[in-house]
Specification:
Layout lengths: L13 H30 L3 H26 L24
Helix pairs in contact: 1-2
Length: about 100
């Protein structure tokens, strides 16, 4: 028997978007935490400073994943529109 599955277009497939966001968040969190740990191991001697560099790396990873996910869910525009600059016309005779 054939399955009666509805085919959902990619822009409306919320489950696929959530899967992509969770995958991206976990990857960026882990990779940036490892990068922070490696950098902290090379640069700092204090355990508190090393943990701070791990936390900073983890924050960078989660923040960048949040930005990408908000673009994926179309929550914010990719770039804000540039403001239009209107020049004032030259003053006419008799006006100051």
């Amino acid at each position: 028997m054939a399955d009666n599955k509805e085919i959902i277009p990619p822009p409306y497939d919320v489950n696929a978007k959530w899967d992509a966001c969770l995958d991206l968040t976990v990857r960026r969190f882990v990779y940036s935490s490892l990068g922070g740990a490696f950098g902290g191991f090379l640069l700092f001697r204090s355990p508190a400073s090393r943990w701070a560099s791990v936390a900073f790396g983890a924050g960078l990873g989660i923040g960048s994943a949040y930005t990408e996910c908000s673009h994926l869910f179309e929550g914010s525009p990719a770039k804000p529109a540039a403001p239009k600059i209107v020049e004032n016309p030259a003053p006419q005779d008799g006006q100051d």
